[in-house]
Protein backbone atom coordinates (compact mmCIF):
# COMPACT_ATOMS: atom_id res chain seq x y z
CA UNK A 1 0.00 0.00 0.00
CA UNK A 2 1.35 3.44 -0.95
CA UNK A 3 1.72 6.03 1.76
CA UNK A 4 1.00 9.74 1.36
CA UNK A 5 4.71 10.49 1.00
CA UNK A 6 4.69 8.48 -2.24
CA UNK A 7 1.64 10.42 -3.47
CA UNK A 8 3.26 13.83 -2.92
CA UNK A 9 6.58 12.61 -4.36
CA UNK A 10 4.84 11.48 -7.54
CA UNK A 11 3.09 14.84 -7.88
CA UNK A 12 6.47 16.60 -7.51
CA UNK A 13 7.91 14.32 -10.19
CA UNK A 14 4.98 14.98 -12.54
CA UNK A 15 5.48 18.74 -12.18
CA UNK A 16 9.27 18.48 -12.59
CA UNK A 17 8.92 16.36 -15.74
CA UNK A 18 6.35 18.68 -17.35
CA UNK A 19 6.52 22.01 -19.13
CA UNK A 20 4.55 24.56 -17.16
CA UNK A 21 2.42 26.89 -19.27
CA UNK A 22 1.07 30.03 -17.58
CA UNK A 23 -2.22 30.66 -19.36
CA UNK A 24 -3.55 33.38 -17.09
CA UNK A 25 -0.97 35.51 -15.29
CA UNK A 26 -1.63 37.03 -11.89
CA UNK A 27 -3.76 40.16 -12.16
CA UNK A 28 -5.42 39.30 -15.49
CA UNK A 29 -9.20 39.02 -15.86
CA UNK A 30 -10.93 35.75 -16.70
CA UNK A 31 -11.84 35.69 -20.42
CA UNK A 32 -15.52 34.80 -19.82
CA UNK A 33 -15.98 36.53 -16.44
CA UNK A 34 -14.01 39.81 -16.59
CA UNK A 35 -14.97 40.77 -13.03
CA UNK A 36 -12.83 37.84 -11.82
CA UNK A 37 -9.13 38.70 -11.69
CA UNK A 38 -6.62 35.90 -11.18
CA UNK A 39 -4.94 36.35 -7.76
CA UNK A 40 -1.96 34.15 -8.76
CA UNK A 41 -0.47 32.70 -11.92
CA UNK A 42 -2.71 29.95 -13.30
CA UNK A 43 -1.90 27.50 -16.02
CA UNK A 44 -1.38 23.87 -16.80
CA UNK A 45 1.18 21.13 -17.24
CA UNK A 46 1.68 20.51 -20.96
CA UNK A 47 1.25 16.98 -22.27
CA UNK A 48 -0.71 15.79 -19.24
CA UNK A 49 -4.35 14.82 -18.99
CA UNK A 50 -6.88 15.64 -16.32
CA UNK A 51 -10.29 14.11 -15.79
CA UNK A 52 -11.93 16.73 -18.01
CA UNK A 53 -9.70 15.76 -20.96
CA UNK A 54 -7.64 18.96 -20.69
CA UNK A 55 -4.16 19.30 -19.25
CA UNK A 56 -3.65 19.19 -15.47
CA UNK A 57 -4.32 22.67 -13.99
CA UNK A 58 -1.83 24.34 -11.70
CA UNK A 59 -1.76 27.44 -9.50
CA UNK A 60 1.64 29.00 -8.68
CA UNK A 61 2.26 30.82 -5.41
CA UNK A 62 5.10 32.95 -4.07
CA UNK A 63 7.40 30.32 -2.56
CA UNK A 64 10.43 29.19 -4.53
CA UNK A 65 10.87 25.50 -3.71
CA UNK A 66 9.27 24.05 -6.87
CA UNK A 67 7.28 21.80 -4.54
CA UNK A 68 3.65 20.78 -4.65
CA UNK A 69 2.25 22.27 -1.44
CA UNK A 70 -1.40 21.25 -1.82
CA UNK A 71 -4.09 20.12 -4.21
CA UNK A 72 -7.67 21.19 -4.67
CA UNK A 73 -10.36 18.66 -5.48
CA UNK A 74 -13.34 20.39 -7.05
CA UNK A 75 -16.78 19.55 -8.36
CA UNK A 76 -18.70 21.79 -10.74
CA UNK A 77 -22.39 20.99 -11.10
CA UNK A 78 -22.82 23.34 -14.07
CA UNK A 79 -20.02 21.67 -16.07
CA UNK A 80 -20.87 18.31 -14.48
CA UNK A 81 -17.23 17.49 -13.79
CA UNK A 82 -14.62 17.03 -11.10
CA UNK A 83 -11.00 18.08 -11.21
CA UNK A 84 -7.79 18.11 -9.25
CA UNK A 85 -5.75 21.30 -9.36
CA UNK A 86 -2.13 21.34 -8.24
CA UNK A 87 -0.90 24.16 -6.01
CA UNK A 88 2.80 24.78 -6.49
CA UNK A 89 4.82 26.83 -4.02
CA UNK A 90 1.74 28.25 -2.27
CA UNK A 91 1.72 29.60 1.27
CA UNK A 92 -1.13 28.69 3.58
CA UNK A 93 -2.85 32.04 2.92
CA UNK A 94 -2.41 31.65 -0.84
CA UNK A 95 -3.88 28.15 -0.69
CA UNK A 96 -6.92 29.48 1.18
CA UNK A 97 -7.41 32.25 -1.39
CA UNK A 98 -7.31 29.69 -4.21
CA UNK A 99 -9.74 27.44 -2.35
CA UNK A 100 -12.16 30.36 -2.06
CA UNK A 101 -11.98 30.83 -5.86
CA UNK A 102 -13.23 27.26 -6.31
CA UNK A 103 -16.07 27.55 -3.81
CA UNK A 104 -18.40 29.88 -5.71
CA UNK A 105 -21.54 29.39 -7.75
CA UNK A 106 -22.04 25.82 -8.91
CA UNK A 107 -18.54 24.84 -7.74
CA UNK A 108 -17.44 23.29 -4.48
CA UNK A 109 -13.93 22.26 -3.48
CA UNK A 110 -11.76 20.93 -0.71
CA UNK A 111 -8.11 21.65 -0.02
CA UNK A 112 -5.63 18.88 0.73
CA UNK A 113 -2.47 20.35 2.23
CA UNK A 114 0.81 18.47 2.04
CA UNK A 115 1.82 17.47 5.55
CA UNK A 116 4.81 19.54 6.71
CA UNK A 117 6.68 16.46 7.89
CA UNK A 118 6.98 15.16 4.33
CA UNK A 119 7.41 18.44 2.43
CA UNK A 120 10.69 18.70 0.56
From TrEMBL:
UniProt-listed SUPFAM superfamilies: Inorganic pyrophosphatase
GO cellular component annotations of the record: cytoplasm
GO molecular function: inorganic diphosphate phosphatase activity; magnesium ion binding
Gene Ontology biological process terms from the UniProt entry: phosphate-containing compound metabolic process
Record's signal peptide: none
Name this polypeptide is given: Inorganic pyrophosphatase
Organism the protein comes from: Dendronalium phyllosphericum CENA369
Amino acid sequence: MNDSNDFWDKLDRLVAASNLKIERPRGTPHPKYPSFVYPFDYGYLQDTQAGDGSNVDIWIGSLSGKTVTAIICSVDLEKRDTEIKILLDCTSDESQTILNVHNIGSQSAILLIRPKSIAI
